[in-house]
Amino acid sequence: MPHPRPLDIVLHSASRILEVAFDNGERFRLPCEYLRVNSPSAEVQGHGPGQKVLVSGKRNVGITALEPTGHYGVLIRFDDGHASGIFGWDTLYDLGRAYDTAWPAYLAELDAKGLSR
């Protein structure tokens, strides 16, 4: 079954939240930090299964620009200079659906490795 399509995307710069609404009625408020540490770029995801990098130190990262990329996603430019990896609409939807479990797991992994946000 295909993923829902986006209806609206709004950057709330002051709160560092990217809000994405989909045509199935779901709306996600995704922290910039969460998006940055889960970037679909090879720098974060690696070049194959099991190569994802644990990114730390991004607590205060923000987004400087959103650049639509065709009909399939958006390039997010972060204020730490990271601007590789296109966030497809499916990726943003999946990140939104996974947030409640993925974010605590990320925090636990940072803690286990003695790293900070």
Automatic annotation (TrEMBL):
Residues 10-93 form the Gamma-butyrobetaine hydroxylase-like N-terminal domain. This is DUF971 family protein. The keyword Iron applies. The lineage of its organism: Bacteria, Pseudomonadati, Pseudomonadota, Gammaproteobacteria, Lysobacterales. InterPro entries: GBBH-like_N, GBBH-like_N_sf. The keyword Metal-binding applies. Keywords: Iron, Metal-binding.
